[in-house]
Automatic annotation (TrEMBL):
InterPro entries in the cross-refs: FtsK/SpoIIIE/SftA, FtsK_dom, P-loop_NTPase
Annotated protein name in UniProt: S-DNA-T family DNA segregation ATPase FtsK/SpoIIIE
Stretches for region Disordered: 1-53
Species for this entry: Thermomonospora cellulosilytica
Domain FtsK residues, every copy: 358-562
Binding-site residues, ATP: 385-392
Protein keywords: ATP-binding, Nucleotide-binding
GO molecular function, one term: DNA binding
Ranges of compositional bias, category Low complexity: 23-34
Length: 746
């Protein structure tokens, strides 16, 4: 029976006396080198007419299917497609890479030319010293050629053997050869003599040129074989090529029994599903590890693997294959230089340009040196790492991106208090460095206002017509419409554990942040939290579980890893534990694109960040987007926990004033807190009284909107005895709203 015979014939066979060996035994018999068993397809015919491979044959399960040997054309075509090499080299398809390559080539050529130009005198001297030896070689060579010296050993050999015939034959041949060679040599000599006399008669420049050329040629001929004329302008530091032997040797040094067994059986030659290829400034190796070995097992031994490959640790990046691959698929990228030492291209937004939070912005580079981008809109971000790995730099970078989108309102909190985020202050709507009581009170008031803002935004979005807001979330158009107040709000917090572990307000911080993480992204509020202690207390579960983007630099254990990168991340091979202490700024980025990626974040130091922030400030000033702290009108009250506009209104009014005109109220508020409310009352000197009253009433009405309070017409007799009908507030509404806010905040 051939393997292609239909199953219908197989079931008519007599029962085998010995049951077929179990599947595991079959696989083990050939050392695990056989392909895995294909899954048994479902039986299509209940009466057994059309039997399949999974069929039970009188107690014996037929493991190998009859059509196993049939070529699966579709699978083969798919496999072939997967192995197709790009028609145009990837570096040529990418404009930045092509530009970088061209820049490198020009720089390289320039360096080599300059290096040798500077050494021309040395090379001249070298050639001059070697030229006598060259002349000697030319003379001897010409003499030996003319006399047919190279055939001399043959003639001697014939004479020694007393082979007269051969000797005479060789002699005759030599005479013939020497005769015409002498003529050629004589002609050459005469030509040289003529040329020499022509040079003697020529001018000094020609003589010098001919002499230099002669010396150069004779010097070149006189150069010993083991010496060079030119020095080496570029010492090659090219890392040795990665070959399958090197990879197998390195894997065999990891002390994994299954690998060693497979190496002994097959030498590891069948582990490579695709050729080892050059991939950017390194090598890409794809591997199907032996049965039972997972990509995780290798990643855990990254340092040993690097030792086995004889490469610095920063060059060796093992990763699991694509998500739909089996667990034994390993993608190993071996760089020529450690990732942290490879020259990074300049950040495209460092000197020019603005960002759009709805669009991807460059954040870092991958192992190949290509830009990796992030889109901040509609995500919450958590950043975790052990201290000194680059967490604050990443937070600052993300906030700079936000700063370069003039619409974005930045709330910046540096709870470490060292001023690392101070470059952002010139563009921040709210900014605080430190964890003193007043800093906490300021942040709490800001967060409470943000939660109120979140609720306002949900209502605004809910009430917008479908054609303006089809997905019930902020769109770029809505964010740019100042009247709606749906601009992006980006809250960046360094060392966020200070908030969540606060003995008095920790729970409230957690509650508000959870709300912002869950509901904020849809309404344009982006919360970015960074912590150096990613545990359940520093990064409460409801927050870590709902973050859309995760950035993890080096962490020490798998709990911290999973806290930042998501549950089971470590188990599935996304391991920030494998980064070394020298991998500063290198992180796993999850949440941008389909797969987590290893990224080296852009290095923007504090002075550069300051320059960028000042550029962003100028852009904001020009477009009227400078607000809050940056504009010197910090809207957030900074005295006392409960201080809000509502509390301030109650403070400047009395119980007897059931209703009060808005313009009167604004003047009183401006007296109470000039820094906060002064701008509402501070109108151009030529403003008419009516316009001033309208402007003040509008400012107050806008400020009360987030609390759901509407102003009303108040028809009263003023202090001058005249009746006036102007916009105003009902004091009771304010008291009720304050009660509600405080209760919600507890
Ligand atoms: N992208 C980067 N490339 C290279 N080096 C970097 C990068 N980012 C940060 N570093 C280096 O890492 C150092 C620590 O960075 P940073 O202050 O951001 O760490 P941190 O994790 O916030 O530390 P801490 O927890 O103590 O605040 C910096 O001084 C900087 O030199």
């Amino acid at each position: 029976m051939t393997t292609n015979e239909p199953m219908g014939e197989v079931i008519n066979l007599p029962v085998r006396p010995d049951p077929a060996p179990p599947a595991t035994a079959a696989a083990g018999a050939d050392g695990g080198a056989r392909p895995p068993f294909p899954p048994a397809p479902a039986t299509s015919d209940p009466d057994g007419a059309d039997h399949d491979a999974g069929e039970v044959l009188e107690g014996t399960v037929l493991v190998d299917q009859p059509d196993t040997g049939r070529p699966d054309i579709r699978a083969r075509m798919l496999a072939d497609t997967g192995q197709r090499r790009p028609i145009i080299a990837p570096w040529l398809r990418d404009r930045d890479e092509a530009r970088a390559t061209a820049r490198w080539a020009v720089g390289y050529a320039g360096h080599v030319a300059g290096y040798h130009a500077a050494r021309v005198p040395l090379y001249g001297l070298r050639l001059a010293l070697r030229s006598p030896r060259g002349l000697w070689r030319v003379l001897i060579g010409t003499w030996r050629w003319t006399c047919d010296a190279e055939a001399m050993p043959l003639r001697m050999h014939a004479a020694d053997r007393k082979d007269a015939d051969t000797y005479l034959k060789l002699l005759r041949e030599r005479d013939d050869r020497v005769r015409w060679r002498r003529i050629v040599a004589g002609a050459g000599l005469a030509g040289t003599g003529l040329a020499a006399s022509a040079v003697m008669a020529a001018d000094g420049l020609t003589q010098a040129g001919v002499l230099a050329g002669l010396v150069a040629v004779l010097g070149w001929i006189g150069t010993p074989q083991d010496k060079r004329i030119l020095d080496t302008a570029v010492v090659s530091t090219k890392a040795p090529k990665i070959t399958s032997e090197i990879v197998v040797r390195a894997l065999a040094s990891l002390g994994i029994a299954e690998i060693n067994k497979a190496v002994a059986a097959t030498g590891g030659k069948d582990w490579f599903p695709a050729p080892i290829t050059r991939d950017g400034p390194g090598w890409r190796v794809e591997l199907d590890l032996p049965y039972g070995v997972t990509a995780n097992d290798i990643m855990e031994r990254r340092a040993k693997l690097a030792s086995g490959l004889r490469r610095p640790l920063g060059c060796v990046w093992p990763e699991p294959g694509e998500e739909d691959e089996h667990a034994g698929r390993l993608v190993l990228w071996v760089g020529d230089r450690p990732m942290s030492k490879t020259k990074q291209p300049a950040w495209p937004l460092a000197k020019v340009g603005k960002a759009d939070l709805f669009q991807p912005a460059p954040f870092g580079t991958d192992q190949r040196g290509r830009f990796v981008e992030v889109t901040l809109m509609f995500v919450s971000v958590i950043i975790g790492a052990i201290p000194r790995m680059g967490k604050t730099f990443i937070l600052r970078l993300l906030l700079l991106i936000a700063g370069l989108d003039v619409r974005a309102e930045l709330h910046v909190y540096d709870l470490k208090g060292t001023g690392d985020l101070s470059p952002l202050a010139p563009v921040a709507h709210a900014y605080r460095a430190g964890d003193e009581d007043e800093d906490i009170a300021y942040a709490l008031a800001d967060l409470r206002a943000l939660r109120t803002e979140l609720r306002r935004r949900t209502k605004v979005i809910r009430n917008l017509p479908k054609d303006r807001c089809p997905e019930n979330k902020v769109t770029p158009e809505l964010a740019s419409d100042k009247a709606l107040g749906l601009h992006p709000i980006v809250v960046g917090v360094d060392e966020c554990q200070v908030w969540f572990e606060h003995p008095k307000h920790g729970a409230e911080f957690e509650e508000i942040c959870t709300d912002l993480v869950k509901r904020g992204p849809a309404v344009g509020i982006v919360l970015i939290l960074a912590t150096q202690r990613p545990d359940a207390k520093s990064l409460p579960k409801p927050i870590s579980a709902n973050a859309g983007m995760r950035i993890c630099l080096k962490v020490m254990d798998h709990d911290a890893n999973d806290m930042v990168l998501g549950t089971s991340a470590h188990k599935t091979g996304i391991k920030a534990t494998m980064f070394s202490l020298s991998d500063k700024g290198i992180c796993y980025l999850r949440g941008e694109g389909d797969h987590p990626r290893i990224v080296r974040s852009m290095y923007i130091d504090a002075p550069t960040a300051e320059t960028i922030a000042h550029r962003a400030r100028a852009m904001r000033k020009a477009t009227g987007y400078l607000t809050g702290y940056a504009a010197g009108t910090d809207h957030t009250p900074d005295t006392g926990d409960e201080a809000t506009i509502l509390a301030d209104i109650l403070a400047v009014t009395t119980d007897t004033e059931d209703k009060i005109w808005s313009h009167v109220l604004v003047d009183r508020l401006a007296d109470l807190r000039p820094a906060v409310y002064g701008p509402w009352a501070d109108l151009p000197p030529n403003t008419s009284e009516t316009d001033a009253k309208t402007a003040k009433a509008t400012a107050l009405a806008n400020a009360l909107k987030p609390y759901g309070i509407r102003t009303v017409q108040v028809n009263r007799t003023g202090p001058n005895g005249e009746r006036e009908n102007s916009r105003g507030i009902v004091r009771e509404h304010i008291a009720a709203a304050l009660d509600k806010t405080q209760n919600a905040g507890r």
